[in-house]
Amino acid sequence: MKKIKNILILPYSHQLGSTHTLISIGKHLKSLGYNVIVAGEGRYINLAKQNGLKSVNLVEIPIDTYRKKTDSAELTYQTEEEIELFIESEIALYKKLSIDLVISTLRLTAPISTKLTNIPHISLTYAILSNHYALSIVIPETHSLYKFHGVPVLFGLLNKIANYIYFYVMKKFAKPYNNIAIKHGLQAKKNLLSYYEGDITWLYDIQEFAPVKSAPSSFRYLGTIFNKVVAEKPKWIDEVKELKKKTNTRVIYVSMGSSGTLYTTVIENVIEYCKKNDYLVVTNSLKQKGNTGDIEIEQYKGLYTVDYASAEDMLSVSDLVVSHGGRGTMYDSLEIGVPLVIIPHQSEQEWNTLRLEKMGAGKKVSKANYSKSELFSALDNIFDNYSTVMDNIALIKSYIKKYDWKIEVEKTIKDLDVE
Fold first, then answer.
1. Is 282 helix (H, G, I), strand (E, B) or coil?
2. Taking the model in full, what pTM does it have?
3. Which residues lie across from 123 on neighbouring strands?
């Protein structure tokens, strides 16, 4: 293997959570002396330039397609023709930029194109999106079988075999990728989950939260990667801190990410809850993709908004986070020490939320059957048991501190970086 110099990073740049993690890794690799290029076409590709990295254009799965497929748990993201186009585009870019290493996330074609060009490939994924996740799963709200939840006995039986159902459908979803791999003389993979893996697979997780079993040595935990975005500090942060100090009021942070489709309803409901309890609300933005402009809500003196801010600033004043269940927001909140109420928008978010509940650090609210009363009940539950919840979070924080992603990243690259 030739010495690594040029590293290509492939995020799914239509989503913030799938981009900032790889941007953070890219910044660190650049500081170690590597030439790092980021490729994509999504709305968050601009984070590369903002963080001092080069960027180039590369076709990605459209966000509307990705959201529709993911939210419905029907993971046929691409046709065989589209897969071929992606592979051709990737190989052309590898050659043009003389790439020595590819690091990707949620890029299902990368395992094929890197094998065809004999370029080492590192994939960043989650333990739950692997063949080695050690915990049982349940049928998510997004799956067609969830319609049987009103028949407890039948639904209970289905949940007992949910893991088998999961791996069966994942095998089916791999078919178009396997067809193309075989066409190019490569071996078919076990299932779609195998296409989330690389020659080395980094897990954006901590083992105590998301354990794996029988995983190969190529699986390595990075721990959490805190979202330290480049952003101006909100002008009202000091005012909110002072109000908390003077009045001992609580602050709820609404963070529905780049894909939280219930944002409009949730922010209105949280404002109502906070007005009733004389709490404050902070939120990243009242402008979300799909809205025509600012959300029209009743003005509330305790509402503080900003278009774009770092998670660190927002969490520094927060007592509780209401989120759609993105992994970044979840781990950022736990690392700072803030409990969560989560309205999961897709399967893996739902499974993570149930795990969070079991560890006593958060509460789940249904998206499929969302109601204001369930949200209010979850918020009350956290605040009524706040001391116990914070003890549970303190334990999770102690787990998080055991990991250092920068050390693991550097070690991995050095293992690959040989003459």
1. strand
2. 0.88
3. 104, 201
